[in-house]
Amino acid sequence: MLNHLDIIINPGSGKEEPILSWLAKALDPSPVTWKAHVINTIGEAATLAKDLAGKASAVAAYGGDGTVMEVARGLYKTNTPLAIIPGGTANVMAKELSIPVDTQAAIALLAGGDYRILPIDMALVNDAPFLIRINMGIFADMVTEASTELKDRWGQWAYGITALQTLQKATPVSYGLEVDGETFTQDAVAVTIMNAGNIGRQGYSMLPGISVTDGLLDVVMLDDADIFTLLKATTSTALQTESKVLRHWRGKEIRLWTEEKQTYIRDDETDEARLWHVKVAPHCLNVIVPHEQP
User: Fold this and answer.
1) Poorest-confidence range of 124-128, 182-186, 203-207?
2) What pLDDT shows up at residue 238?
3) What is the CATH number of domain 128-282?
4) What secondary structure, in 3-state letters, does 97-162 show?
5) Where are the domains of the chain?
6) What is 4-113's CATH number?
């Protein structure tokens, strides 16, 4: 049972909720003491979580996946557990780990104590830690071009809308790929290297078998940008089956390279590179999850 919970709150998350009132209502009658920390700037959550590591029984993140990613980076390779209180648009990590996406239910889980600590993987790209995935090509554009207004109106469907919009300007890039020492070449309009496979819908992964606890990373490439290829990829995900239009590799250490620099997203941070060295960091983050999971 938790003794003290530090809660990092992002007031700019996708939901407008009386979060402080709900926290007080659930936690004040419980044995758990708590303190709220409201953040205002990008990067503040990671710095704060790193400072709180080892001092609190657990550090909770209330916000969207960006907030959760930041707090995870701050708790990377510490023993302090991460508690997720979903407050965003997609809430990918909550769905990945079967944590209630309803805010009050997630708080009740922490107050009631019916949970366990699950060690999960993270990964490093060029020595920088990430929690969910890195994206390039269409997979990056669909995130960066989804405006706040679009996400507020359409929720997680906003990313599908921007994916369709970016198809028109997508051009294949030639990638070199090394997976655990085995080398490949592949032209692709989109690349993702995943630690977590959930696509923002409970029980649905981009491809079957992707896990945050298996000590492996999954590389997926989409080789064409026409609408029929995208429909085939979407059908594959919906049916949770492998697909010929989604090239798939799995390994512990990945090297990826291109001739020219490419924009990519590491979790929620945008950068450029032409060489990516990605390796899994097994069981380096402890997360509070429901005691009974599907």
Assistant:
1) 203-207
2) 47
3) 2.60.200.40
4) CCCCCCHHHHHHHHHHCCEEEEEEEEEEECCEEECCEEEEEHHHHHHHCCCHHHHHHHCCHHHHHH
5) 4-113, 128-282
6) 3.40.50.10330
Q: What is the mean pLDDT of the chain?
A: 87
Q: For the residues 183-206, what does the mean pLDDT come to?
A: 89
**Mean local confidence (pLDDT), 7-21:** 90
This model's pTM is above 0.85: yes
Is the C-alpha dihedral spanning 193, 197, 200, 205 positive or negative?
Answer: positive
Give the confidence band of 161 by pLDDT, cuts at 50, 70, 90: low
Would the pLDDT of 294 be above 60?
A: no
